Automatic annotation (TrEMBL):
<dbReference type="Pfam" id="PF00072">
    <property type="entry name" value="Response_reg"/>
</dbReference>
<keyword id="KW-0597">Phosphoprotein</keyword>
<dbReference type="InterPro" id="IPR001789">
    <property type="entry name" value="Sig_transdc_resp-reg_receiver"/>
</dbReference>
<feature type="domain" description="Response regulatory">
    <location>
        <begin position="4"/>
        <end position="118"/>
    </location>
</feature>
<feature type="modified residue" description="4-aspartylphosphate">
    <location>
        <position position="53"/>
    </location>
</feature>
<protein>
    <submittedName>
        <fullName>Response regulator</fullName>
    </submittedName>
</protein>
<dbReference type="InterPro" id="IPR011006">
    <property type="entry name" value="CheY-like_superfamily"/>
</dbReference>
<dbReference type="GO" id="GO:0000160">
    <property type="term" value="P:phosphorelay signal transduction system"/>
</dbReference>
<keyword id="KW-0902">Two-component regulatory system</keyword>
<dbReference type="InterPro" id="IPR050595">
    <property type="entry name" value="Bact_response_regulator"/>
</dbReference>
Length: 142
């Protein structure tokens, strides 16, 4: 099953290059050039991983991460930055980021992170489904 990924970055050339390289690896990739656009897409679709730039003019990646988590608590978000600091990395992890990586990114490393994100999301969905089944079976309406 192809990994479904959303890449959010205001640098259009970087965004298009990353999307093309990930599609060549068999991933289903959507893109957004702004956090506002990304949040609209996230309301309508689910993704295995959301790749989010830390520094964007409209809204920074940490604020966007918080808004993503409000909408989809289980979202697996990987922050990318060319301006990494320990403080930002810690803050990102506290807000629920799956990982915090520096640009330029090694595509193999990012691909591995996306596959881990997909696996984590599948485990969450399975647990949620099991809980629902237990609740249904516990009611004994039949």
């Amino acid at each position: 099953m192809a990994e479904k990924v959303l890449i959010v970055d205001d640098e259009k050339e970087f965004l298009e290059t990353m999307a093309e390289r990930m599609r060549l690896r068999g991933m289903e990739v959507s893109t957004a050039t702004s956090p506002t656009e990304a949040l609209k897409i996230i309301e309508k679709e689910n993704f295995d991983a959301i790749i989010l730039d830390l520094m964007m003019p409209e809204m920074d990646g940490l604020t966007t991460l918080s808004k993503v988590k409000e909408k989809k608590a289980d979202a697996q978000v990987i922050l990318l930055t060319g301006h990494a600091t320990l403080e930002k990395g810690i803050e990102a992890m506290k807000l629920g980021a799956m990982d915090f990586l520096e640009k330029p990114i090694d595509l193999k490393a990012l691909t591995d992170k996306i596959k881990k994100a997909q696996a984590r999301k599948m485990i969450i969905v399975e647990k949620r489904t099991e809980e629902k089944l237990k609740q249904i079976m516990g009611k004994k309406y039949w």
